[in-house]
């Protein structure tokens, strides 16, 4: 299994540009999520999804859109990039459901985004 | 959400045991204690989790206080590859949806000296 993959690894944008960060997993996980991590900080949840067609907002959703048309993919869209969105973005996935009591989450390697 | 408190940083010497503390005085009866770590320039990875009893796996041990208000992650023999930020996280998994979220604090930066 490839696990959780993210593309691109690095990206530089100008203010106002839009782009999509890609995330895919091949573990048939229902739950997927996006986090951002600013320097010296822990991760903050942007959006999450508990299955195809279902998404919800996390702690810092403003300026980002998500959709979940398949179990495997969970892209994150920046609508109009701002310097405050300069960060490292991590995608994660896990099983869901009460039968799996610990729901270990698997993280991708991250996308390092700079907005000028 | 119940909060956790960890020291900002700790140091250890290679091949010595490391005890990483976490306080969670407001933990509820349905909160599991999870530990993740983040190696430099990588995404977080799962280390261990527990509810009430001490737990062991190939990476580490988790010692949970009897009143569950604190826990300690134990690395039995630290290596240079264990240098990372360690996060102690509480998760209530009794209901679905948003309770799969992980709430990260700043964690503990572990430095391992050769």
Summarize the structure in words.
The complex is a heterodimer of chains A (116) and B (114). By secondary structure, chain A is an all-beta fold. Chain A is built from no helices and eleven strands. In chain A, the strands form two sheets. In chain A, strands 2, 4, 5, 6, 9, 10 and 11 form a seven-stranded mixed sheet that branches. Chain A has a four-stranded antiparallel sheet with strand order 1-3-8-7, with no helix packed on it. In chain A, a hairpin with a 5-residue loop joins strand 4 (31-37) and strand 5. Chain A starts with a strand and ends with a strand. Chain B is mainly beta. Helix content of chain B is 0%, strand content 46%. Chain B has strands spanning 9-13, 18-23, 31-38, 45-50, 55-56, 61-64, 70-75, 84-92, 108-113. In chain B, strands 1-9-8-3-4 form a five-stranded mixed sheet, with no helix packed on it. In chain B, strands 2-7-6-5 form a four-stranded antiparallel sheet, with no helix packed on it. Chain B is globular and about 40 Å long. Chain B starts with 8 loop residues before the first strand and ends with a strand. The mean pLDDT of chain B is 91.
Element-level helix/strand string of chain B: EEEEEEEEE
**What is the subunit organization of this protein?**
heterodimer
Beta-strand content bin of chain B: over 45%
Largest sheet of chain B: 5 strands, mixed
State the share of residues found in helices of chain A, binned by percent.
under 10%
Order of helices and strands of chain A: EEEEEEEEEEE
Q: Work out the radius of gyration of chain B.
A: 14 Å
* Overall average residue pLDDT of chain B: 91
Could you describe the largest sheet of chain A, including whether it forms a barrel? 7 strands, mixed
* Counted beta strands of chain B: 9
N- and C-termini, Cα separation of chain A: 36 Å
Envelope shape of chain B: globular
Whole-number average pLDDT of chain A? Answer: 92
Helical/strand content category of chain B:
mainly beta
Low-confidence stretches of chain A: none
Largest interface: A-B, 30 and 25 residues
